[in-house]
């Protein structure tokens, strides 16, 4: 594939913007096409593990995001009654993986990424269609994308158009696409003045809950439960959360008391169970959920999109190398996320009791379950140097 000079990114989410910034930094002229009327994302918070932060180092953003870290002191895994099953702390995680875990609102990260692009690089309200994936090495067959303002040609198209990717369907029409993961999720970001608690995730029978502080003083809470696909509360989703979690340990009742119905987002979870045969075809590369949507049980969806974006910029002139670098890794992480979902959302009473006892015993015997679960994930390094972060450069020798 000849050197990429012109790229189109379909999708202005975290993966798409990271790819756009990384390509822009290597001298590629980039246009981002976002179908929504603005870049403000629909969603709540995102946790960035050291692997994603190292990726952001490559584009000069890692330390700015690390400065937003709010997790301090103890945290871990709890039972609905409040008993700690597994304990860990921010310092132990940072020492194990060479950096902190940062939780921030998605809109904050999107704003930081967008600020690194030229003012005319992003077009909103721009619904894009892949018309021709193009032929690498053939100057007469660039990729072609249709937009409301006409057709655009490029040496590279980055498909970051999400789990229901239209580009993926064009490239791999025989692939079954995403399937329902068997559970639904709720997310809340609200102020909770005076609340003092340790970051935690709580596992019940077929239900989980997490509560974490943000740097700006708000708290991020999320929940997941087994449910039929498409099910919705008969009244409102806050009331549904009260029914499911209202008698769980503090600060869960306080969070629910402070939330309004309109503060609660609910989404069914879908994932790509059958891996794609490749993450590219022609002059088009798929990244993020378009390539490998996974359950959120490892918190790696956005992190893997960042890894994809940084790796793609490095291999922009050789898309088979991008697939070779990303397909095995994301397939393995996605499968691990499915296994974790089966574990933390099990519904059998006896199985749940055995699970909790095993987690507590394993945690006493060695590093906390939370830390062990990130082995071989959070220690990822980008394929290119130098890192923009002096801290990361030193920590990697």
Task: Walk me through what this model shows.
There is one protein chain. This protein is α/β, with parallel strands linked by helices and 397 residues long. The chain is built from 14 helices and 18 strands. It has helices spanning 14-25, 50-58, 62-66, 90-97, 106-114, 166-171, 237-245, 252-258, 289-292, 301-314, 319-344, 349-365, 369-372, 390-395; strands spanning 6-10, 29-33, 45-48, 74-78, 84-89, 102-105, 122-123, 129-132, 143-147, 150-154, 156-159, 179-191, 199-203, 207-213, 218-226, 265-271, 280-281, 284-286. The strands form four sheets. Strands 5-4-13-14-15-12-16 form a seven-stranded mixed sheet. A hairpin with a 2-residue loop joins strand 9 (143-147) and strand 10. Helix 1 runs parallel beside helix 5 (106-114), helix 1 packs parallel to helix 10 and helix 2 (50-58) runs parallel beside helix 10. The longest helix is centred in the C-terminal third of the chain and has 26 residues, at 319-344. The protein is globular, with a radius of gyration of 21 Å.
Short structural description:
The protein has 397 residues and is an alpha/beta fold.
* Terminus-to-terminus distance: 33 Å
Strand order of the largest sheet: 5-4-13-14-15-12-16
Classify the oligomer.
single chain
User: Tally of extended strands?
Assistant: 18
The helix count comes to 14
Q: What about the largest sheet?
A: 7 strands, mixed
What level of helicity do the residues show? 25-40%
What integer is the average pLDDT?
92
Strand content: 15-25%
Poorly predicted ranges (pLDDT <50, ≥5 residues)? 388-397
Instruction: Give the C-alpha Rg.
Output: 21 Å
Structural class comes to: alpha/beta
Shape: globular
């Amino acid at each position: 594939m000849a050197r990429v000079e012109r790229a189109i990114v379909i999708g202005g989410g975290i993966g798409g913007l990271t790819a756009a910034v990384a390509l822009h930094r290597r001298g590629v002229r980039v246009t981002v096409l976002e179908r929504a009327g603005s870049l403000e994302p629909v969603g709540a918070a995102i946790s960035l593990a050291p692997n994603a932060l190292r990726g952001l180092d490559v584009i000069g953003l890692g330390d700015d995001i690390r400065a937003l870290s709010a997790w301090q002191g103890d945290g871990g895994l709890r039972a609905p009654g409040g008993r700690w099953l597994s304990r860990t702390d921010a310092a132990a995680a940072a020492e194990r993986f060479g950096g902190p875990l940062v939780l921030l609102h998605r809109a904050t990260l999107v704003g930081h990424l967008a600020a690194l692009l030229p003012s005319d690089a992003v077009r909103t309200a721009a619904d894009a269609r892949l018309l021709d994936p193009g032929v690498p090495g053939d100057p007469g067959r660039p990729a072609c994308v249709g937009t409301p303002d006409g057709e655009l040609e490029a040496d590279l198209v980055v498909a970051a158009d999400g789990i229901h990717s239209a580009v993926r369907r064009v490239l791999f029409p025989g692939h079954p696409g995403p399937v329902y993961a068997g559970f639904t999720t709720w997310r809340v970001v609200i102020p909770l003045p005076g609340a003092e608690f340790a970051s935690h995730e709580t596992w019940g029978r077929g239900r989980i809950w997490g509560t974490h502080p943000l740097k700006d003083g708000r708290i991020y809470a999320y929940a997941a439960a087994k449910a039929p696909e498409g099910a919705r509360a008969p009244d409102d989703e806050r009331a549904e959360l009260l029914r499911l979690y209202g008698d769980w340990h503090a600060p869960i009742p306080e969070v629910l008391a402070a939330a309004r119905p309109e503060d609660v987002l609910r989404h069914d979870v879908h994932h790509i169970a059958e891996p794609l045969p490749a993450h590219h075809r022609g002059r088009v590369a798929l990244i993020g959920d378009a390539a490998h949507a996974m359950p959120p049980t490892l918190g790696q969806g956005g992190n893997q999109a960042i890894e994809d974006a940084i790796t793609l910029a490095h291999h922009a002139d050789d898309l088979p190398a991008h697939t070779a670098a990303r397909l095995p890794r994301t397939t393995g992480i996605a499968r691990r996320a499915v296994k974790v979902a089966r574990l933390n959302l099990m519904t059998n009473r006896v199985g749940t009791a055995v699970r909790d006892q095993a987690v507590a015993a394993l945690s006493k015997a060695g590093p906390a379950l939370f830390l062990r679960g990130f082995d071989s994930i959070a220690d990822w390094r980008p394929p290119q140097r130098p890192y923009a972060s002096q801290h990361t450069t030193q920590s990697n020798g």
